[in-house]
Design goal:
single chain; 510 residues; mainly alpha; three-stranded mixed beta sheet; 14 helices
């Protein structure tokens, strides 16, 4: 029988044996790991040494390259320094040569100065001897001879200066006239013009001659009412299907014409209806007057005009002067004045404002013994216009003296607008014939060399022979020409006669 101890010792022995085997296996594994670690360590050391060697080699190569680069740069710098040294050496040699040349020239200059000084002393001695000899021969002292020469030179200089001034004056006059013509021609070419006819009668067409009886009314009450309310003359004659309205006032004539046309169109013609229509048309015409004034100011770009001024300007729409519509004429003058002012650098806005108002006196509602320029000047002053504008309005026909360049521009623009052939009612043939008759009449007087009609016949410029007519007789000659024109010719407005008598002396230098 197996003892109990065996049953107990056998497992213990197995445990011990198993532990021993595991310990031995662990020791074996540890030894293998240590060996592998050692091998890895050795490999790392070898690899590190190899990399170290490579880095050292690269560092050596880099050092060698940098050293070579430094040596090349040092070599180039040494070469450049050598070139600079050679150039400095050449410059020093050149400078030395120049200094030597300057020293030589300085010595020559000193010698020349000494020679010149000696020559000056010699010349001064000779000059004194010559002066004494000249004084002895001429019998004049040096101061007297000097004064004589100075006076001669002064007279010659004055003569040359006067000749030069005359030349400059002539050139300036020719240039100014040429420039003025260019400005006027350019201005005239840039404007658009229109011409209307001046009539004092209007014709109203009728649908039939039976309407004449209705216009006259029972015992003439209709026509009398219409004439009384409008202040016109209504002429009903044998003219078929037409009635003529005659009146010197174009506003009243227009009111009567429009009222009559509406009465004919309406068919109800009796005093009450006539009065109603006339009042309505009068209001419309007044509104139209204001609208026409505003339209012109808007077209011209003129602002800040008083209502009285706009209304007075609009009344010119129904006014005509020698075939020209006064409002269109005023607008045209304003355009021309603006162009002229822009050309010569004057106040363009002021010139346009004065130009559009220059004939405003022609539309005045009150009767006055003054001419339209004076009436217009008073109206402009009451409207609060600028004093320069007031002066330009009053001076556009030279009734007063112009005080500004803008006033002169208004005169020129007015003359351009009115003096164009065909601008006014006269035909071209009548226009030319009237001017020819004016010139022929003036030239028929003894002592008149030539006569020129300018400004559309508003001015007559007469050239007088200075040998036949003395100065004291020129005024009498002008008076006789004026009387002869008043007696023999018919003309609009007034004619200004300018007498020109001059003495010309011509001498030729050969």
């Amino acid at each position: 029988m197996v003892p109990l101890i065996w049953y107990i010792s056998l497992p213990i022995a197995g445990l011990v044996l198993g532990w021993t085997i595991r310990w031995l296996y662990a020791r074996f594994q540890l030894s293998a790991s240590e060996q592998r670690a050692e091998r890895v360590k050795q490999d790392a050391i070898k690899e590190a040494e190899a990399q170290k060697k490579e880095i050292l080699l690269e560092a050596k190569d880099q050092l060698i390259r940098e050293r070579n680069q430094q040596e090349r740069e040092n070599k180039e710098r040494r070469g450049e320094l050598q070139r600079y040294e050679r150039r400095l050496t050449l410059k020093e040699e050149t400078l030395d040569k120049r200094m030597a040349a300057v020293d030589k020239q300085e010595q020559e200059f000193i010698a020349r100065e000494q020679k010149i000084a000696g020559r000056e002393v010699e010349l001064a001695t000779q000059e004194e001897r010559y002066r004494q000899e000249l004084e002895r021969i001429s019998g004049l002292s040096a101061q007297e001879a000097k004064n004589l020469i100075i006076q001669s030179l002064e007279n010659e200089a004055k003569h040359d200066a006067q000749a030069m001034l005359n030349k400059i004056d002539q050139e300036a006059q020719v240039a100014s006239e040429k420039k003025a013509r260019e400005i006027l021609v350019a201005t005239i070419q840039r404007i658009a013009t229109e011409t209307t006819s001046d009539i004092t009668v209007s014709t109203v067409s009728l649908p039939s001659d039976e309407m004449k009886g209705r216009i006259i009314g029972r015992e003439g009450r209709n026509i009398r009412t219409l004439e009384t309310l409008t202040g016109v003359d209504i002429i009903i004659d044998d003219t078929p299907e037409a009635v003529v309205i005659s009146c010197f006032d174009p506003v009243r004539k227009e009111i009567a014409k429009v009222a009559l046309e509406r009465l004919i169109s309406d068919g109800r013609i009796h005093p009450a209806r006539i009065e109603e229509i006339v009042q309505k048309v009068t209001r419309e015409i007044q509104n139209k007057i204001y609208e026409e004034g505003e339209k012109v100011l808007f077209d011209l770009g003129i602002h800040n005009m008083s209502q009285d001024g706009v209304r007075a300007l609009g009344r010119l729409y129904f006014r005509t002067s020698y075939g020209q519509n006064v409002l269109n004429h005023s607008k045209e003058v304003a355009i021309i004045a603006g162009m002229l002012a822009a050309e010569i650098g004057a106040n363009r806005d002021l010139a346009k404002r004065a130009a559009v108002l220059h004939d405003i006196g022609k539309g005045a509602e009150n009767d006055s013994d003054q001419n339209h320029a004076e009436v217009g000047m008073d109206m402009a002053r009451k409207m609060g216009e600028d004093p320069k504008v007031v002066n330009a309005v009053g001076a556009h026909h030279n009734d007063i003296e112009p005080t500004s360049i803008e006033a002169i521009i208004v005169q020129i623009a007015d003359a351009i607008s009115a003096a164009r052939p065909g601008a006014r009612r006269e035909t071209m043939d009548n226009y030319v014939k009237r001017l020819e008759n004016l010139e022929t009449l003036a030239e028929s007087f003894t002592g008149v060399e030539k006569a020129y009609a300018i400004q559309a016949g508003r001015e007559l410029r007469v050239l007088v022979n200075n040998e036949k007519i003395p100065d004291q007789d020129v005024k009498e000659l002008a008076r006789n020409i004026a009387k002869q024109i008043e007696t023999d010719l018919r003309y609009p407005g007034r004619i200004k006669i300018t007498m020109i008598r001059e003495t010309r002396i011509v001498e030729y230098a050969r």
